[in-house]
Amino acid sequence: MSILSTARRLGFSKGVLGGNKKWLIIGAIAWTLRALRWAWTPSPKTVYRKKLEVGETIVVRHDPPRPTRRQRRKAKRRQRKLDKRQAKQLVRERKGELTDV
User: Fold this and answer.
1) 98: pLDDT confidence band, cut at 50, 70 and 90?
2) How big, in percent rounded to 5, are the helix, strand and coil portions of the chain?
3) Mean pLDDT, the chain, as a whole number?
4) 54 belongs to a structural domain
5) What is the pLDDT of residues 48-94, one digit of tens each?
6) Is residue 21 scored above 80 in pLDDT?
7) What is the DSSP letter of 17?
8) Does residue 47 lie in a domain region?
9) Which of 36, 33, 35 is nearest to 7 (CA)?
10) Which residues contact 24 (CB under 8 A, 6 or more apart)?
């Protein structure tokens, strides 16, 4: 719980219901800050608007974020290790073919 939410709660309970003027002022300030934060929040942005005809559909999807640089490096290292293992295994298999003859 944040400090402002605690101040709002105590401002109402101790200030309005309890009659304590200090808590009433603190509560009023906290509620005013909350109202200002709400007023400054931008409204949602319309991305696309069109009237749909009968049979038309809209597909809304959210693509996963691109991998971070760290994730790309880890994947690259993993792939190099896998390539080395496969190369070693291939060499072993070829050696086995040569000794079997």
Assistant:
1) low
2) 65, 0, 35
3) 90
4) no
5) 889 999 999 988 888 999 999 999 999 999 999 999 999 999 998 88
6) yes
7) I
8) no
9) 33
10) 11, 15, 16
- Domains in the chain, number: 2
Contact 31, 11 (CB under 8 A): yes
Q: Which domain holds residue 23?
A: 3-40
Taking the CA of residue 40 as centre, how many other CA atoms within 13 Å lie in the half-sphere pointing to its CB? 6
Does any domain span residue 29? yes
> What end-to-end distance do the CA atoms of the chain give, in Å?
76
Whole-model pTM? 0.44
Structure tokens at 97: 């073919």
Query: What are 73's two structure tokens?
Result: 């490096």
**What are the helix and strand counts (H, E) for the chain?**
3, 0
Q: Does any domain span residue 24?
A: yes
Say what the pLDDT of residue 66 is: 94
